[in-house]
Amino acid sequence: MQTYAEEGAPIIERGEGIFLFDTDGKKYYDSISSLWCNVHGHRHPRIDNAIKFQLEKIAHSTLLGLGSVSSLELTERLVKLTGMPHVFYADSGSGAVEIALKVAYQFSVRRKGKSCNKFVSFKNAYHGDTLGSVSVGGIDIFHSTFKPLLFETLFAPSPYAYRWPTENCKEEALKKFEEILNSFEKEISAVVIEPMVQGAAGMILEPSGFLSEIRRMTAERDIILICDEVATGFGRTGKMFAVDHESVKPDVLVLGKGITGGYLPLSAACFTTEIFESFLGRHEEMKHFFHGHTYTGNALASAAAIASLEVFEEEKTLEKLSEKIKLIEDKFSKLRSRSNVGDIRQCGMMAGIELVEEKATKKSFPLEKRMGHRVTIEARRRGMITRPLGDTCVFMPPLSSSLDELTAMLEILSESIEAAIGDN
């Protein structure tokens, strides 16, 4: 907070395509998609017009006891897209995670009894900043302060290959995970995971086959699997959803960020029929899920989300990603040889470059040097907005970025890293 006040951060006034413009008229590449949510660029005509058209009808009406045209249409599209037949809306990723956790607990208690009060998550996990989502978060710098307020979560090791002490990262992490399941099987409500990529931890990639093994182990024990795709969903990993890489079907799929193309706050928790039907019953049975948000299924946000999904189809967004992903991989190959680049992690259009003080020992820079932040400032001087995760430089541009735009952003990123480390 103090740094923000001292540095005079740009005040963004408008956007166009993948660019942002501040109040001084300076133009910046939006290389982190306005915090990982912008998909098709700013001021996309299709999404702009959809919001204007909806606004001429109604901006919002409650879904408590009612329905709305745009939220119903969006639900039909999401059901078809995800294969998950029931949707509960919220207005943030964290809010949708809270819904998933509460539903999983209520459902599991009915099946297993009141002792079923534990969740399993992973070290380095991030699922949001509300107390339920913080309870299943595994990043100490974000979450440890609030431990006295949190419910019990069992943390399995994160398969962080770069920092793992041996070469058997996947096998050893899975073994520890299975030990937790075996020890607490009857007490576990659900397992929560960010599929394929732990985003806020520094773009930590899960080894191939890790997610499918997690699904197999949870299914064998009849434990709910919640896949949090707030960051990875809607094309970020090269497929519409990260679970598609390993054909995994979770019990709960959490969506957010890119669901509206980055236009308006909206999120969703998608459930199986088995979970949904467990909440059905006569009024006096009190099987209800007592939870709701004022802006649940907001009409404007739903209209934006529908339009965004239409853009995916019309512009063949996913089909065009392979060439862009390959370009990023090729450009990163030159960075890998630099003495202060410890690791580069990429999954589709999500990437992180971990900077280290000593490459041979993987020694991190001292905290006070704020190397990742230095890169951010250097990039800003060169006309690009980015935001680090510690000393990991994030690159997550809008999916609509052209090859030329990607090349320009990657050159700025490379120059900014060189300049920041040169001042070290």
Structure notes:
The chain has 424 residues and is an alpha/beta fold. It folds into two domains: 2-30 and 320-422, Aspartate Aminotransferase, domain 1, CATH 3.90.1150; 48-314, Aspartate Aminotransferase, domain 2, CATH 3.40.640.10. The protein is built from 14 helices and 16 strands. It has helices at 2-7, 33-36, 45-55, 69-82, 93-112, 131-135, 140-143, 169-184, 210-220, 273-277, 299-314, 321-335, 371-381, 403-422; strands spanning 12-16, 19-22, 27-30, 86-90, 118-122, 153-156, 188-193, 197-198, 204-205, 224-228, 252-255, 267-271, 341-347, 350-355, 384-385, 392-395. The strands form four sheets. A seven-stranded mixed sheet has the order 4-12-11-10-7-5-6, sandwiched between helices. The longest helix is centred in the first third of the chain and has 20 residues, at 93-112. The protein is globular and about 70 Å long. The relative contact order is 0.16. The mean pLDDT is 96.
Features:
four-stranded mixed sheet, seven-stranded mixed sheet, 2 domains, Aspartate Aminotransferase, domain 2, single chain, 14 helices, 16 strands, 424 residues, alpha/beta, Aspartate Aminotransferase, domain 1
